[in-house]
Amino acid sequence: MNVTDALKRVLVGRKLASAQLGETLLPKRIALPVFASDALSSVAYAPDEIILTLSLAGVAGFVFSWQIAIVVAVVMAVVVLSYRQTVHAYPSGGGDFEVATVNLGPNAGLTVASALLVDYILTVAVSVSSGVQNAKALFPFMVGHEGIIAAVIILILMGLNLRGARESGTVFAIPTYGFMFAVLGMIVVGMVRIFVVGEPLAAPTAGFDVVGDTYYSQLTGFALIALLARAFSSGSAALTGVEAISNGVPAFKEPKSRNAATTLALLGVVAISMLTGIIALANLTGAKMVDEHAGVYFTQGGVRVTDHQETIMAQLAATVFDGFPLGFIFVIAMTMIILFLAANTAFNGFPVLSSILARHGFLPKALSTRGDRLAYSNGIILLALAAVGLVLAFNASVTALIQLYVVGVFVSFTVSQLGMLRHWTRHLATEVDPAKRRHMKRSRVINAIGLTFTGTVLIIVLASKFIYGAYLAILAMAVLFVVMKLISRHYQQVERETALSPSDVRLLPSRVHAVVLVTDLDKPAMRAVTFARASRANSLEAVTVAAEDDHTKDIRQQWEALDPGIPLKIIASPYREVVGPFVRYIKGISSGNPRDVVMVYVPELVVGHWWERLLHNQTSLLIKARLAFVRGVITAAVPYQLASSRYAIDRVVRRERAAWRHPGTGTVHSGSNQGE
Amino acid sequence: MNVTDALKRVLVGRKLASAQLGETLLPKRIALPVFASDALSSVAYAPDEIILTLSLAGVAGFVFSWQIAIVVAVVMAVVVLSYRQTVHAYPSGGGDFEVATVNLGPNAGLTVASALLVDYILTVAVSVSSGVQNAKALFPFMVGHEGIIAAVIILILMGLNLRGARESGTVFAIPTYGFMFAVLGMIVVGMVRIFVVGEPLAAPTAGFDVVGDTYYSQLTGFALIALLARAFSSGSAALTGVEAISNGVPAFKEPKSRNAATTLALLGVVAISMLTGIIALANLTGAKMVDEHAGVYFTQGGVRVTDHQETIMAQLAATVFDGFPLGFIFVIAMTMIILFLAANTAFNGFPVLSSILARHGFLPKALSTRGDRLAYSNGIILLALAAVGLVLAFNASVTALIQLYVVGVFVSFTVSQLGMLRHWTRHLATEVDPAKRRHMKRSRVINAIGLTFTGTVLIIVLASKFIYGAYLAILAMAVLFVVMKLISRHYQQVERETALSPSDVRLLPSRVHAVVLVTDLDKPAMRAVTFARASRANSLEAVTVAAEDDHTKDIRQQWEALDPGIPLKIIASPYREVVGPFVRYIKGISSGNPRDVVMVYVPELVVGHWWERLLHNQTSLLIKARLAFVRGVITAAVPYQLASSRYAIDRVVRRERAAWRHPGTGTVHSGSNQGE
């Protein structure tokens, strides 16, 4: 089974199952918000980071902001054009991972996969941190508690996703269009007030001066270039999420590729308008931010300003809507919501990618879908814990996290563009139709330009941010890459080791010896005895270990009185332990009869709460663990359901009913025949 | 089985097993160091805490130190006398827990048990913290990293105890006698130099003045009393560990009780000499400490002293052996070692107590010895983690930890003395021999005095330390008490629920349906098939879930080619999951035949490393977990041992060989017949 098939099966298969439940394929107007929330939300923090980085050159630095915005916009246009080629060439929705694997081999695919996994984690951390940053404009009490608030929000998102409450298109559509309306509306109103009405709009920070460790303030030669490169790298965060549509082609209405490409173009236009509009408005109103961690701060009339910094979005909203608080609240609320929504898309993307990787043997099988919804749950929990770790470690500072963020995005952009180049070259080698060849050559040129741009940006990002945190992202990717390689090698080795040979089929054990472990003479033990009796083994005995004399005597007397129909063997235990003597006894039977099977029946209590599990079945667990290493021995756990097990059954039923109501989470979809 | 029997079995049983391995009962000269390291080590920090607390009254406060030392010495004498009665009355070695349970009922026993468990944790935290404090005199680089160093030392102790390297008497004897020799020697040399030679010995801090928040400095009325009470409470830490001998009576040579009582008296004399000697020497040389956390600090010539504070022990050693560095090093090294040794005794005591409590159903059975050495391991790990948490939370500050420490000790002292009072009263009611009655009455008077003293100290400790941290200890005890109560109630309820009725024996299932789960057609699956065939069930089939079409087709074709002798059933799975459809299929068989047994054979890979376990058997685990809730279904795990399982088998063999070399750890003692 090759990668493309697998991906098709994962994505188309999921879609098919959903289709039966009445869901339809997405029209463009719904697909845009579904796939664009991540890409659009980044304009909430990219301008801040451009301006904040430039503050290192003092007030004079800010004049470069619009130039940087234009360069970012140009790169974004190129990337959007490049991905339109991908959408046409790979309508299966595999995205960068598929492009890299098919064209450049598994190592390239794995490189992209590592970059994407790291990126999903950073998307959650950065988006939620930025959401909290913006939320402070509405809820000032959050100031000083950013890390813990961001962590709580991530855990809430995790909880929602674990419960399987998956958003429909509408849930995405309202806040995404709301955000577009709010930001573009704010830009238009601002421009009208400045240029048409002629009001001199001034942001709250317009009159502030910038002082401190502005070590770039000479603004000459290499220092200037390095600073501009850093500002540009931070601004490139605006490009994150652009590739999302290329993963979602199968979800579009026919003609899928064409609709996806159009939506991608639309996304590009909207994102570029928002980014340049915000930067322009910031320049016009004098809105600015400073990098406090780098020792730069605001002064007003020579006195240091100690208030916490508002985001550019909050400053602009306050300035443009200065007489209209509802407008301000609307902009901030929409910004907050789209940022949390962007984080949420990673909660969908990460488990899907890790399940694809698990299916190919690069991650533990526990993350693949074969194990039902639990697989997705594992992915969701992993993602949430990693993101919580990041926001706590970096105290939800967008400025700190963004240093790690952009590397991964551009690694996968670059590798993917290289893959596309190979794709067209490969197809050109066999294609004869001149019209198609022309078209392919054109596409190849576009992807070559894309590769040049993304590759250059990657080098700039690496050079300008390496020591500021990018090395951490690179390190994480390298570790992931190596771990996935090792996992894959392990699975292949196990597959070789367990490969069937014809002789395995013919070797039948000659006899079955059944042994029932009795530690207490109660209902669970007696159920194990009756079940063992029903199995008609060649030999059958109950065994108890004499760990406590009185207790053993009790059991023997009761056994004789009850007469359960099989002999009770008592094993001596000089050190009053149960597991060791029992395991040795079973090993003795097994090694005396190497061609036979020893079937060990172990009674187990089935309980309904996690804490009850700490209180029971420890001996049984130990015995099962030890006997697993003995060839020819099978342990059969005979469950005895305590009344409290009802709670666990009810939980499963409730969960499955919820899955039925919220399809598409990979859960069991039948509410019937549950419990017992 | 009553408490006394259980305790006897635990302690005498352990001893018996050890005796077979050539160990002998302890003579007094070995018993003293074995049981006294905890009690003696506390003189390393008790004087510091007395002096440090008095610093709150400024320089004038220190004059009270010798008076407090005398009161502590008197209380210690009374407690030692009281415990001599316990040793005679309860030679089984159950200690305070037994005395309280037998005489005052299970709730009193549980109160003592909670107090002791909390105390063991604090013994580790306080002893190691004090060890680090003293170690700084030899290794100054430790300053500023106390918390993490203490945590590492605790983890090292945990590791040693997990490996089962249990100390023999000699390991205790050398450092304990060394410590006694070092401290008493230092006191004698110091006194000789001062009074015989007439040298004016002055500690490094002798010339320092004490300033700061000395809010008690009025030294009048209530404030003075409160301060003295606090200093006394901290000094009472010297009494911790005195009760240890009463737990160890069965380990003494005959006449056990008499020898134990003599050893206890010896311990009292040594501890009192050391405590009063150190305080006297500190007064004579002007050695002092200040409570920096309370805002009190040293000045010299009006300038604040910023060096880190040396312990009283380090100051005295440096002063007395000022021309003889080897003497200084010896004192500090012995102090350090005995403190770590004292912590180590808790690593023996905590698991034993928790296993006794687990045996009585107050703690999870996983902590009782029936599960072999793993039970002790659980106790050791629990203790270490709790102590690490404490030293990190309090940054290994002895002064902060000591606020929590003494409460638990005096709770168990007081309850135990009350129990002894009851004990004598009960025996006096039936005793007729006038000589014995006289003896009993005398004992009762001693215990009544003991109760008065320990009760008074408890009240003083509670009143003077409650807000400084004692409330935390009380809270921890209360939580432990309630949790143990709840666990006990749960076990009783389960016992009622699973109690056998005669009808359970007669109900035989009529038929057995065997089902083998096949997810891949490999050696493990085929082993499960052949084992299932050997079991001669009434019906037998292999089942595979069609989660992936190609894969399922492969399996079907291979199955037909191999012809393993049983039919292969293919279950549809519209959502490409395995667990749900399989479990529903089994439920279907089971509910269609409620009087039958369904035996589900699940192939499992047995691996040798923990990380391999993350990579395998997830489907099997999920299926077993889900099927446990279905009545009439047994899941039999058919293990397939991968080559790497060898590592795990080797580990077990090595561990068991180590246990053979270091007997007494509760492990399996047979090195033969291991592995397979």
UniProtKB/TrEMBL annotation, chains A, B:
One term of GO molecular function: transmembrane transporter activity
A Pfam family matched in the record: AA_permease_2
| Membrane topology field | Multi-pass membrane protein
Q: Does the keyword Signal apply?
A: no
Q: What is its main location?
A: membrane
| GO cellular component terms attached to this protein's record | membrane
Span-the-membrane segments of this chain are: 50-83, 104-126, 138-160, 172-195, 260-282, 328-353, 374-396, 402-424, 445-462, 468-487
Q: Note the InterPro entries from the entry.
A: AA/rel_permease1, APC_K+_Transporter
Places the protein is found: Membrane
What keywords sit in the KW lines? DNA-binding, Membrane, Transmembrane, Transmembrane helix
Query: What is this protein identified as?
Result: DNA-binding protein
Source organism (scientific name):
Propioniciclava flava
